[in-house]
Amino acid sequence: GDSVTQMEGPVTLSEEAFLTINCTYTATGYPSLFWYVQYPGEGLQLLLKATKADDKGSNKGFEATYRKETTSFHLEKGSVQVSDSAVYFCALSEDTSYDKVIFGPGTSLSVIP
Amino acid sequence: EPEVTQTPSHQVTQMGQEVILRCVPISNHLYFYWYRQILGQKVEFLVSFYNNEISEKSEIFDDQFSVERPDGSNFTLKIRSTKLEDSAMYFCASRLGQDSGNTIYFGEGSWLTVV
């Protein structure tokens, strides 16, 4: 079945460092791809999304490009802040059934001053 | 910004007891969901609900689980006889429509601890 794989965490970075969190997916069709973020003590928030190949999603300085040829949707940010400390989930929504969102395991990010 | 709200934020219950988790989806949304996240594990799909019936459910959603939309605003998840392994964060979510452009909005979750 469809699945999402993310790089293992936790990731610890200094403030203003460059962030990459790798995400690859397996899907039979043409899924929509998402990054969700979970700040400490809070729920899941949609960070960005892309619905077709070569689309770039962006929000709050984060961006990710839907790469069908490599089945990837890596999350990047040029300069992280302490407030970016959270757990980041890569996810997909199947094109045959938009009901389900399938999540990756999550990557915990800690940004230190 | 409209949001999905969930109550309680945390509930501790004894094994074998019934639990009802409550959710108020975004008011004009039509599709409703429950997901759960066992501590340290993935967020897993449980069930989706549309037009007053279950549209899809996972293997996790067995006969101990049920969902209901008792009125025009609430969406509930009931666990009939809780087990230790039901301890998890339960997320309610809602979506306006069913296509690739419609985002699923999640609530802040309800922590269930079964002792």
Please render the helix and strand layout as text.
The complex is a heterodimer of chains A (113) and B (115).
Chain A lengths: L2 E4 L4 E4 L4 E3 L1 E4 L5 E7 L5 E7 L5 E4 L2 E4 L9 E3 L8 E8 L7 E3 L3 E6 L1
Parallel strand pairs in A: 2-12
Antiparallel strand pairs in A: 1-4, 3-9, 5-6, 5-10, 7-8, 8-9, 10-11, 10-12
Chain B lengths: L4 E3 L2 E4 L5 E6 L6 E7 L5 E8 L2 E5 L7 E4 L6 E5 L8 E8 L9 E2 L3 E5 L1
Parallel strand pairs in B: 2-11
Antiparallel strand pairs in B: 1-3, 3-8, 4-5, 4-9, 5-6, 7-8, 9-10, 9-11
Describe this structure in words.
The complex is a heterodimer of chains A (113) and B (115). In chain A, 0% of the residues lie in helices and 50% in strands. In chain A, strands 2, 5, 6, 10, 11 and 12 form a 6-stranded mixed sheet that branches. A 4-stranded antiparallel sheet of chain A has the order 3-9-8-7, with no helix packed on it. With 113 residues, chain A is mainly beta. Chain A is globular and about 40 Å long. The model of chain A has no long low-confidence stretch (mean pLDDT 92). In chain A, a hairpin with a 2-residue loop joins strand 7 (56-59) and strand 8 (62-65). Chain A has strands spanning 3-6, 11-14, 19-21, 23-26, 32-38, 44-50, 56-59, 62-65, 75-77, 86-93, 101-103, 107-112. Chain A contains no helices and 12 strands. Chain B is mainly beta and 115 residues long. Chain B has strands at residues 5-7, 10-13, 19-24, 31-37, 43-50, 53-57, 65-68, 75-79, 88-95, 105-106, 110-114. In chain B, strands 2, 4, 5, 6, 9, 10 and 11 form a 7-stranded mixed sheet that branches. Chain B has a 4-stranded antiparallel sheet with strand order 1-3-8-7, with no helix packed on it. The termini of chain B are far apart. The model of chain B has no long low-confidence stretch (mean pLDDT 92).
